[in-house]
């Protein structure tokens, strides 16, 4: 009986570690795509609801192009993006969901900016692929209103004030 419990616990722990590895691997691939301005790869990780809220893929691409031009004009660039460990993974309405802390550091001619946000991460295929929602884009209240399919168990932190260090 004890041996069976050890096998079950070990199997569950290994499976959870595999899911966490997949989430983190895909999050890091998304970050690399953002840093390289690889829009096609980036788009495959954005949750469809966020694409819809942005006005569709074409509009989002135009907005991203505008942001790239503005960033270049002000000498702004992403210095680093740190992805934390996923919080508790819950299954709700046939989707696996979790939250990952994210810290983005930007630099520009004016100074450095640090943003602490979270990524809501959702899989509808049992953890094989994950879609990401950056909570820095909309408030938790607006996000929950737009996405009633989010689990009430998900603890989504509110946005923190950005930290700016002038040059």
From the spread of the alpha carbons, the general shape counts as globular
- What is Rg? 18 Å
Terminal CA distance: 64 Å
Summarize the helix and strand pattern as letters: HHHHEEEEEHE
What can be said about the biggest beta sheet?
6 strands, antiparallel
Number of helices: 5
- Determine the strand fraction and express it as a percent band: 25-35%
- Low-confidence stretches are 2-13
Helix and strand composition category? alpha+beta
Mean pLDDT: 87
Oligomer: single chain
Helix-residue proportion: 40-55%
- The tally of strands reads 6
Structure description:
The chain has 167 residues and is an alpha+beta fold. 42% of the residues lie in helices and 26% in strands. It has five helices and six strands. Strands 1, 2, 3, 4, 5 and 6 form a six-stranded antiparallel sheet that branches.
In brief, what are we looking at here?
This protein is of the alpha+beta class. The chain has five helices and six strands.
Keywords:
167 residues, alpha+beta, six-stranded antiparallel beta sheet, 5 helices, 6 strands, 42% helix, globular
């Amino acid at each position: 009986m004890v041996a069976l419990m050890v096998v079950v616990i070990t199997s569950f722990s290994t499976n959870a570690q595999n899911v966490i590895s997949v989430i983190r691997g895909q999050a890091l691939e998304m970050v690399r795509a953002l840093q390289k301005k690889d829009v096609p790869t980036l788009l495959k990780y954005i949750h469809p609801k966020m694409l819809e809220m942005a006005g569709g893929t074409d509009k989002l691409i135009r907005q991203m192009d505008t942001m790239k031009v503005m960033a270049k004009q002000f000498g702004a660039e992403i210095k680093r993006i740190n992805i934390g460990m996923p919080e508790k993974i819950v299954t709700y309405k046939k989707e696996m969901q979790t939250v990952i802390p994210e810290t983005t550091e930007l630099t520009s001619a004016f100074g450095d900016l640090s943003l602490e946000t979270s990524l809501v991460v959702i899989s509808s295929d049992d953890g094989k692929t994950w879609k990401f929602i950056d909570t820095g884009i909309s408030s938790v209240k607006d996000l929950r209103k737009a996405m009633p399919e989010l689990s009430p168990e998900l603890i989504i932190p509110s946005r923190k004030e950005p930290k700016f260090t002038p040059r």
